[in-house]
């Protein structure tokens, strides 16, 4: 089980030098930030002749204790220059850590999503996941940069500042520390309220994305049935709800934003009163140059203090996003078992007493049924729509587990085998496994080797020999989204090319001749008949097919595979 901290520490371990460099540059730039107001105080003292015993300690710093103004100025500009360099390095390194962490997460996320169990995708649309790659990764980057690295640097700087101020005047140090604790507590509770609202807001956003996703995927239907108005209405309702939650969120968020400067000014007021009254009491440790340093220190401290008070929003939003990401990373994944080379060309596949329902349904598609697929035979499986042909494919490819019974591939049972080991042996031609990629080449050739390209050109030409010249595709032709700009026949031919190029021992073909032109149908029939005895061929269709030689035929009827004698 992954946790947020495990993800962060794993990443930090592999990038330890980057973190170390960030920490060091942060430390240097913070120390230099402190030196600037102190050196201004020294300049003031030097020019106006004040002398504070509290500033004696600074006099041991080389260069600052010079009587020559130009030397002091050089020293001052050096600090400014070096500080600039380190601030730049520090900011760049923090941003770099965030970019690298986001890269690491999005790659983990995608690799995992490719392996997530099929049933998860049966239930959720992809719109649910898009925000994970944009909004959530952004919140996580914020969490790392503002919530973690800069926060730690800020806390460190504030700690040094408090020590410096306490050194000048212990009571001032105590007042500041006390105010920080009280203000942080106040804001912590308001932020808790903000958290609940922001969870709702994010969920709503996510729902809206999946709404848009399903509508845009069904755009043809919306256009053909003139469903613009009802869909707009539905969208407006959702969008209105998002606005309402957005308003609630902004009310609380604005109150926090307004409260932070207010609280810092209250703190300033308390400090001024302290300085005023202690000066009047004549026991003051605060003389003019020290007062100037104090004011400058506090002014440079205010934005840091505001950042610290604001950090819990960053934490909360980051935590929501981490939770969502971890939830996906914890979804059951395929291929937890090692890959094995099964060499199924000579092995029998047997379904033994199989009972199967889809994971989200109670209907038993198969009930206690058995059958076998003999190697290098052509087996036809015939069943009406809804009989369970796709369910059979899902079982065979280990997309879904059987409820009861066992499937064996040679000597191995399905639960001993990783999905990859099984699928390595089976090439599928089916509408359920659409073409994807930008062009024909991407859609049919999964190996980038040169000889594959030559082979694919030849095969493509061969399978299209009976097609009308205007429909003949080349490797560079675009296929649109999931092949949507292709004809049914073109899609089917490309699916044949894709399957045959993989050269797997088992060929699984769902409705092999649906959509094909008669001449191409005859040609592919002759190809398949020619492969008989060389490959294991499994044909799925609604009706028996004329002109195709088969060794075995099964009907799927009433939850059973029935062998036709
Ligand atoms: N993902 C799913 N979740 C739940 N039930 C499903 C799912 N897919 C299909 N079904 C149901 O399971 C039964 C078998 O469906 P299946 O798709 O396997 O049949 P089929 O023979 O392939 O039909 P067709 O040729 O129309 O695709 C049907 O009643 C169908 O409604």
CATH architecture of the largest domain: Up-down Bundle
Total domain modules: 2
Query: Are any ligands bound, and if so which?
Result: adenosine-5'-triphosphate
Uncertain runs are none
- The top level CATH class name of the largest domain: Mainly Alpha
Query: Biggest β-sheet, characterized?
Result: 6 strands, mixed
The percent range for strand residues is 5-15%
Subcellular location: Cell membrane
Main location: membrane
Domain ABC transporter: 349-565
Transmembrane segments: 20-44, 64-86, 148-168, 174-195, 258-277, 289-309
List the SSEs and their pairings.
Elements: H1 4-14, H2 16-48, H3 69-115, H4 118-123, H5 127-168, H6 170-217, H7 219-224, H8 228-280, H9 288-329, E1 349-356, E2 366-373, E3 378-382, H10 389-396, E4 404-409, E5 412-413, H11 419-423, E6 426-429, H12 440-444, H13 450-463, H14 488-502, E7 506-510, H15 518-531, E8 536-541, E9 552-557, E10 560-563
Parallel strand pairs: 3-8, 3-9, 6-7, 7-8
Antiparallel strand pairs: 1-2, 1-4, 4-5, 9-10
Helix pairs in contact: 1-2, 2-3, 2-5, 2-9, 3-5, 5-6, 5-9, 6-8, 6-9, 8-9, 13-14
The structure holds adenosine-5'-triphosphate.
Residues 122, 358, 360-361, 363, 365, 383, 385-391 line the site of adenosine-5'-triphosphate (ATP).
Describe the structure.
With 565 residues, the chain is of the alpha/beta class. It folds into 2 domains: 4-329, ABC transporter type 1, transmembrane domain (ABC transporter transmembrane region fold, Up-down Bundle); 344-563, Rossmann fold, CATH 3.40.50.300. Helices cover 62% and strands 10% of the residues. It has helices spanning 4-14, 16-48, 69-115, 118-123, 127-168, 170-217, 219-224, 228-280, 288-329, 389-396, 419-423, 440-444, 450-463, 488-502, 518-531, and strands at residues 349-356, 366-373, 378-382, 404-409, 412-413, 426-429, 506-510, 536-541, 552-557, 560-563. A 6-stranded mixed β-sheet has the order 6-7-8-3-9-10, with helices on both faces. The protein has a 4-stranded antiparallel β-sheet with strand order 2-1-4-5, covered by helices on one side. Strand 9 and strand 10 form a beta hairpin. It is elongated. Bound molecules: adenosine-5'-triphosphate. Residues 122, 358, 360-361, 363, 365, 383, 385-391 line the site of adenosine-5'-triphosphate. It is found in: Cell membrane. Residues 20-317 form the ABC transmembrane type-1 domain.
